[in-house]
Amino acid sequence: MTAAWFEWAVASRPAPGELVCGDRHLVREEDGLLVAAVVDGLGHGPPAAEAAEAAVQTLGAPGETGVRALLEELHRQLGRTRGAAISLARLERSGALSWAGVGNVEAVAVSPDGQARRLSTGNGIVGQRMGTLYPQQLTLEPETTLLWVTDGVDADFLEDFRPLLPTASIPGKILERHALGSDDALVLALRYRPGGTAR
């Protein structure tokens, strides 16, 4: 999917034997400000999906967009669920990125020349126990790709990533080759393209 200054795509699948996926995503843009997140509900099946859906509903509500404040609000809202791992980003049209996460949703920024920067997340489970948050800030250069993967994807997922791949093809390709097949799995790719054209 595309907007004036970014494009994104997602692919997911539930754990074997499950009808619902407990891994969810959100991409929300308003007035030149983008909030994007991946949520991995603890475990799998309906209780995991319930936790993930509660997180997505909270993230989709109008209001606060700071990553620390969003995670703190998510922690309050998910207290009645089994909780989730969450990694989220706040991206401005200028390329200014704020990033924070809790749990094992892996996140990486890949520059156009293929240099990958893994973005750290804190320990804990949103809604259950959450330590001190340490948001990161960086400035993205045009054509940088942000990737999120849940723990249903193996650690070698970057092996098949190429910076010039069309955004729409990235999540499906990673999921096809690197899904572990034992848990819910989700891949979200978002490319920063100020002034670019969709491809």
Label this structure with key terms.
12 strands, 5-stranded antiparallel sheet, about 200 residues, 3 helices, alpha+beta
Polypeptide structure, described:
The chain has 199 residues and is an alpha+beta fold. It is globular and about 45 Å long. It is 18% helix and 36% strand. The model has no long low-confidence stretch (mean pLDDT 92). The protein contains three helices and twelve strands; from the N terminus they run βββααββββββββαβ. The strands form three sheets. A five-stranded antiparallel sheet has the order 1-12-11-6-7, covered by helices on one side. Strands 2-3-4-5-10 form a five-stranded antiparallel sheet.
Give a summary of the structure in a few sentences.
The chain is of the alpha+beta class. The protein has 3 helices and 12 strands, in the order E-E-E-H-H-E-E-E-E-E-E-E-E-H-E. Helix 1 (46-60) crosses helix 2.
